[in-house]
Fold each of these.
Amino acid sequence: MSYLTRGLTAAAVATSLLFAIPMVASSASTDAVAADTLLSQGKPATASSVEGTGFEASKAVDGSASSRWASVEGHDPEWIRVDLGATATISRVKLSWEAAYGKSYKIQTSADGSTGWTDVFSTTTGNGATDDLTLSGSGRYVRVYGTARGTAYGYSLFEFEVYGSIGGGGGDTTPPSTPTGLAATGTTSSSVSLAWNASTDNVGVTGYVISRNGTEVATVPGTTYTDTGRTASTSYTYTVKARDAAGNTSGASNTVTATTQAGGGGGPAVPFGSHTIPYAAGMLTPSGSQSALDQKVIDYYTQWKSAFVKQNCGNGWYQIISPDADHPYVAEAQGYGMVITATMAGADPAAKTIFDGLVKYMLAHPSVNNADLLAAEQDTSCKSVNGSDSATDGDMDVAYGLLLADRQWGSAGTYNYKQLAIKHINAIKASEINPNTNLLTFGDWSTSGDSTYNMSRTSDWMIDHFRAFRAATGNSVWDTIRTKHQTVTANLQSGYAPNTGLLPDFVINTNTTPKPAAGQVLEDPNDGQFWWNACRDPWRIGADAVTSGDSASLAAARKLNTWIKSKTGGNANSIATGYKLNGTAIDTSSDAAFFAPFAVTAMTDSGSQAWLDAIWNKMLATPIATNSYYAASIQLQVMITVTHNHWVP
C-alpha cells in the first residue's frame, strides 16, 4: 500500500495509518481515483502568510505549474487553505512542492474554516517533490497545516489540488446575478480603486472575486476594492464575479480598464500595500492572504477618514476632529492624522492633498513657547486655547509624519517636508527633552523648576520615532535618548511589574530613580497604573520590536504578550479596560484603545498565531466608534502595523 507516492519511512507510514484509508492497488481502485473531480482549482484560497507580491495563496490553486504560493521564511507553523464553496467528500489531495517543502504537516478539513479542524492525514517525514495522498474526509474547507519546514526557508506549493465530489445532491445550484456597474473610482501611481453594484442570490452572496488581466487576485465581501502595488503609467483590466455560499459563481461583470498615474510626479515611493520594507525576521501576520488583510485596513481607514478628517475652518486647512477630547482639535489627533495619511498614500488618491492641508493647519498653530512646535489645543473656531503651548506626543508624530511625507513625495513641492521635519525634531530636543535625564517631558511648558519637569509619560516613548530622528538629523543624541527610554522601560517592568510587564501612565522621579506615579500627578487617580495613556504602550513598544528586531524592544514586548495571553486564557474578549501594574483589572469593559495594541506584541512570539488572530478578528468585529477618535485612531494604526504596512523613514 502507498500513502505518499514518493514513499515514507516505516514510522511515517505508521503515523499515516491513523488518518489515511488504504489504497488497494487494483483496477477498481485506480478507476475510482481517476474519476475523482478536481474541486480546488480557481477557488478562494488564503494563507497564514505570504512571502511577497506574486506568491499569494491563489497561485497554488490556479492550475499553473509555474506559479506558486510561498509563506514567509523561517517560521513555523504556516498554513494554506482553500474554500471549496460547499461541503465536499474528499478522497485525494495532491501537493506539488517547490524546494521549500513541509517535513511535518497535516491535511485538515473544516465545515466553516475557523473551528473544528479535523486531521485526515499527518506525516512527520515529508521529503518534498510531489505528495499524492489518498485519504477520506469531508468539509467545505481543506488546509495544509505545516508544523516543521524541510528547509531553512518557508513553505511553498506550486499546486494544492483537492479531489472528490460535492456531496448530497439537491443542493443550491443557482448562481448569483452578474455584478453590474463596475467602474474605476480612482487611481494613483500605484493603485486602482474599484466599485460595483451588488448582486442578488436565492441564498445569499458571500463574496466577490476580482480578476486583473484575466487572473483572480482577491475575494472581498463588499462592493469596493483597491488594488495596490501596481506599476505607474500602466493599464489594467478588471472584471468581478459574485459567489454564493454553495460555491456557485456568477458570470463576469462588465470589463473596466484603468491606467495608473505617472510615477515620479507626486506618486508615493512606498505605496500602501507594497510591502517593500520588510519587518524583522519571524514577525507574525494575521492569518489570511496579504491582499485581504490590506483591504481590511483600507476599509477601516475609509470609515476613519469619513468620521474624523474635516475641513471645518476654511483656509485650505484639514483637521482631525476629536469629539472625545477636551477640545475639538488636539495635537495628538493632528499627529495621528499626519502619520496615517502619509502611510495610506497609494490606497487613497487624496492622501497628499489631505496631508498638505494638515501641514498648513499645523504651521498656522505654533506653540507660544517654541514656534517650531504645534499648539496642543484649538476650539471650534480652530483658535488655539488653553495656553497655546505644546504636547509632546503630538509633536513626536508630527515630526515622524513629515519624514514619512518626505520619503513618499519628496520635498520639492508646496512644502519642504524634510526641512520642516528637522526643525520640528530639533524643537523637540530643545523644548521637550529634559537634558539632565534624556527623557521626554510633557510639553514645552514643562520647564526646569516646574513640578512636572522630572516626570514623563510612557506612551510618548516612541522608540521607532527616535530611530527616524537619528537618521534624519545625523545627531547621535537620539541614540542616547532612545537607549535611555529603553533602559527605563526595562527597569520599570522588572522593578514594578515583574509578572505583567505593564507600564504606568506617568513616571515620576526621573532625575533619580524613575518610578510609577503614586496617585494623581496630572490627569487621574490611576496615573500610576496601566490606564488611558499607557494603553498605547504595547503598540508603541511592539512597533519598534517588529520593525527593528531590537533585543530590548523585543524583550519588553514579549513580556507584555506572555502576560496578557495568560491573563485572558487566549480570549481577546477578556482584555480589560485598564489594569493595575500587578495585573488586577480596573474596568472589565472592552475598548479598542486597550485590546488592539496587544496585537502588536503578539506578533513578536512565534507561538502566538492563534492569539494574534483572535485579537485581529475582534478588531474586525468591532464597529468603528465615530464618537471616539482616540480608540479608532489607535486601532487603525495597530491594523497598519500588524499587516506589515508600518515602516520607519
Amino acid sequence: MSLRRNRLLPVCAALGAVALTACSGSGGSGGSSADKGEGDTGGVISLADAKGVLRTYVEVNNAANAAQDGEKTATVESGALLSQSKASFHQYPAWTKKEQAESEEPFSYPAEGARFYIPAKGSADFFMVDTRVTGKGIAEGRRRLLAFKQVAEDSAKGGKAWKAVAVGEITAGLPAVAENGDGLATPVAATDPVGAVKPGDLVGLSQDFYVTGGKHAAGTFAGTDSVKAWKKAYTNRAAFKDHCVDGEYKAGTGGADTAYGVKTEDGGALVLYDFGYQYENWGKAECAGSDLHLDDLPVVSKIYLQGRTTVLNLTRIDSVMAMAVVPPSGKKIRVTGYRDQLTYAQ
C-alpha cells in the first residue's frame, strides 16, 4: 500500500456528491512482547519472526509501490488492504505527476520501538503491531496499527504466509492493550462479543450510515468526525448543483468484510475492520439532457470508462478500512479514522 497517495487520516475530508468520495482514513502498552525477549513465548509467532515479517513487508511494499506491481504486493498483503492497493495501482495512469511521485516515495515501519500484540498459539491466526511511520515529509511521531494474518498460499506453493490485511491510524487517547504475564495479547475475533456488539457487526452497522444515514446504527456509535462524514455522504448523495442528478448508496464488499481486534485493559477492544459500499448516480427524468458529465472524475473516466466523459448512469464501488475503539459495553463505539478507496466503476 502506498503511504502517501492513499494516506490514512484520523478525519476524512468532507464529502460531496459532486466529487469522488475517496479520501484517506484509520495506544498500546509500552514494549508489549518485546519486554519478554524475542524467543518463542508461546505466541502465534515469535517476536523475532514478527519483526522479520514487518521488515519484509516494508521492503516488498516499497518495491511494489515504485513499480505499481500488484502481484508483488500480493506476496505481502491480503484482504481489503490488497484490494485497495491493487485499485491504486490500476488508477495510477490517471493521477497527476505529483501524485504519482508521492506514491513512489519509500517509507518505513521501524521494528525497533514497535509494540507487537501477539496472541497465544492456537487462539488466533493474526497479530497486530503498533509502529512508527517514517520517511520523507512524514510528521515525526506518526504511528499506525497493522494486522498481519497467516494466509494460505496457492495450491502450487503450499504452506502459509504472514500478510498485512488491515491498517489504521493511531490517535491520542486510545486505551492500552491488555497482556498476560507472558506479554501475550488476547485476540478478539469477528464473532467474539464485546458487550452488546461483535466486531464483525461493525461491517453492516457502518454500511448503514451510507445506506440509511444511520437509522439502525447511530445508537451504537459515538459521533466522531468519521461517523459524521459517513452521515454527510448519505445526506449529500444527490446534492448536485443543477439538481438534475439523483443518487443512492447500497451495501457492497470491502475486500474481506471482516474484523480483527485485541482486548484492551478496560475490557473493551481495539478493532480494525473493512466494509464496502456502492454509490449509484443517474439523471432525473424531468431534466432535459439527463446524461451525467464526468469531467471532474478523471480516474473514473480514464480508467474505468475508456475515456468517456458522459454516461446515462454511474456506479462506483468503494472499499473502506476503519479503526474503532469498542468500549466494554459495546456501545458508543468510537471510529477513530478510516480510509476510503475507489475500487471499481461502471
